[in-house]
Design brief:
By secondary structure, this protein is mainly α. It has a domain at 14-50. The chain contains two helices and no strands.
Length: 58
């Protein structure tokens, strides 16, 4: 499990966040886990189209 070294405060429209909160609840996830899930899907799609991203360990 990776640790969160530099948390990023997310500023998001209130209506959009309410909808996202609804989706997270339907999926039995916390908002944080739902955001993480969506970001992982985005990265997977990106890598399928553009190749694997190599990240150096800090």
């Amino acid at each position: 499990m990776s640790s969160q070294i530099n948390p990023y405060p997310l500023r998001i429209d209130e209506d959009l966040m309410s909808k996202f909160r609804y989706i997270a609840k339907i999926n039995s996830r916390s908002i944080n886990k739902e955001i993480e899930f969506v970001i992982k899907q985005y990265v997977t799609t990106y890598e399928k189209e553009n190749g694997t991203i190599t990240v150096e360990e800090a």
